[in-house]
User: Which sequence fits this backbone?
């Protein structure tokens, strides 16, 4: 009898719940997937991909900074217990199952997926305005290229081999992933809507070629890239989507700190370079003295991704390598330096070497995720040779992808 009563009670509860759910109006903040395939939704879709770009970029810039010699970890700042940050700093053993690392790669995967999905939708939607379709295709292919560049630059199957996977497929090495990014940029170039977009694509192409050691192609692309007066292309943040370099390597929390050469070497050599190397300090805790970066002073500070200044420094490097044109290289370096209030040009006759250009890149591109790439391509690694030079592909990806386990060598 008791069992019958309980069964009737459960059944009544289920029926009541069913009736209750049916009586609730459809949520007003949901939209079906098919309903997004409309020209009126194109800007909404584009903004979603742009937000995912910002989310992935701040992850990659932070963790690349920690893995490189740009940032370092020290628990005496009060940031103890954040294991993944310390593991990246030491780079000898990195836990592929760490939830922080998994979260970052999940966000990158979503960014790549939605960029490619944007391209598919652009061919599905019937547009009344050709300009709207071109904008959507440009954004889809540009961001598809950036996502692939992120995989090539920052993710790796093992300590020495970069690259990633797309849609649970075979592992794609960094070089092939970068070629895929360049193919996406070529498709974006077919849908540009302004001269600025043409130059933006060329600057990213130049960076990828430089990363691959193709200096002739990097030179050609950079010559057509961003130029003085062009706006910086940057990732935007807000109080819901935080700049992680502020949050975990700045005024938010002092988990990562700028390498001491920025204050003990560069700023002592030229105190006026504080316009680029913005540091606050010294601060002392537990007998440990350190500086904090203030390049990103707020939670919503934007992060530069592509700039004409970087393009000038790429041109300087390529001209030095290919033609030994030290005069032009020095002029380009000084064009960048004098774009900042109070920062003086290097003296005429200054000997331009690769070391000088690398130092200028360090200062100009401080906390933008590029130092790790420079260390690898220039063979200037700061740790033991058996340490990680990429963020390892995470364990859930390995577990769910039959193409990967045989390739994994920690």
Assistant:
């Amino acid at each position: 009898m008791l069992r019958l009563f309980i069964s009737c009670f459960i059944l009544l509860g289920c029926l009541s719940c069913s009736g209750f759910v049916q009586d609730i109006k459809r949520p007003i903040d949901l939209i079906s997937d098919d309903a997004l395939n409309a020209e009126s939704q194109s800007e909404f879709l584009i903004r979603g991909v742009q937000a995912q770009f910002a989310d992935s970029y701040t992850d990659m810039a932070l963790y690349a900074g920690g893995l490189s010699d740009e940032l370092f970890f020290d628990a005496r700042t009060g940031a103890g217990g954040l294991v993944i940050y310390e593991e990246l700093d030491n780079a000898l053993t990195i836990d592929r199952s760490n939830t922080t690392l998994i979260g970052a790669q999940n966000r990158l995967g979503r960014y790549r997926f939605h960029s490619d999905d944007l391209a598919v939708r652009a061919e599905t939607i019937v547009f009344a305005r050709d300009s709207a379709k071109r904008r959507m295709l440009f954004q889809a292919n540009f961001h598809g290229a950036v996502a692939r560049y992120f995989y090539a630059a920052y993710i790796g199957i093992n300590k020495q081999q970069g690259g990633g996977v797309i849609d649970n497929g075979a592992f794609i090495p960094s070089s092939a992933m970068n070629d895929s990014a360049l193919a996406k940029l070529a498709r974006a170039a077919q849908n540009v809507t302004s001269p600025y977009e043409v130059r933006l694509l060329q600057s990213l192409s130049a960076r990828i070629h430089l990363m691959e050691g193709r200096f002739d192609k990097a030179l050609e692309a950079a010559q057509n890239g961003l130029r003085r007066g062009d706006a910086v292309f940057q990732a935007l943040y807000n109080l819901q989507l935080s700049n992680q370099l502020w949050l975990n390597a700045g005024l938010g929390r002092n988990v990562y700190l700028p390498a001491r050469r920025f204050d003990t070497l560069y700023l002592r050599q030229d105190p006026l370079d504080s316009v680029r190397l913005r540091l606050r300090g010294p601060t002392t805790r537990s007998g440990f003295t350190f500086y904090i970066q203030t390049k990103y002073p707020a939670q919503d500070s934007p992060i530069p991704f592509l700039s004409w200044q970087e393009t000038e420094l790429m041109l300087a490097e390529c001209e030095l390598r290919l033609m030994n044109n030290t005069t032009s290289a020095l002029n380009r370096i000084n064009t960048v330096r004098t774009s900042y209030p109070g920062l003086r040009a290097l003296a005429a006759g200054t000997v331009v070497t690769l070391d000088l250009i690398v130092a200028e890149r360090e200062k100009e591109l401080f906390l933008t995720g590029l130092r790790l790439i420079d260390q690898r391509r220039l063979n200037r690694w700061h740790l033991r040779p058996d340490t990680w030079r990429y963020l390892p592909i995470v364990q859930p990806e390995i577990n769910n992808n039959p193409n990967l386990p045989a390739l994994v060598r920690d």
